[in-house]
Amino acid sequence: MPLILFNKPYQVMCQFSAQDDRETLADYLDIPGIYPAGRLDADSEGLMLLTDDGELQHAISHPRRKQPKVYLVQVEGTPDAGSLERLRNPLDLGDFVTQKSEVRHVQEPGWLWPRNPPIRERKNHPTSWLTIQISEGKNRQVRRMTAAVGLPTLRLVRIAIGPFALATDPLFPGEWKTVDPQEFRRQT
Hints:
alpha+beta; about 190 residues
């Protein structure tokens, strides 16, 4: 029963079934019987875990298990102490209130690959990088959180899920590798 670490490229649909003229997971992974343990929007990139083990998939993705997920987020603007504090605390997004999160203002990491196509550059609008760690992961949650504090997301890369991180398990977009599922179970 494999556990697959996959770096989902930008604009790839998080499904195996054909989707019009869009790339899907099937364009990168030809392993029968595996399913994503969690999803990423087409306009988000980064780490996904896939498995053929339903119990493991549940342990990774179910909100009650509270697996930490870390996102590297490029935002438009420069965060101040107030906007960072709002992101860290429960934030009312209208249809739900987020749980507390860990948020840091960081430099762009040297290991990060360029996005294809690149994000839009506007000379009069600086950009900044944040890491945001959440354990819930509702639909478009990180994008909605940054927008709610006046820092629209320009690029969103999931860089860690539980014990696995792209900084320590380097994969370029479209690359994948198999890991021992016990590695996840031992560390959670």
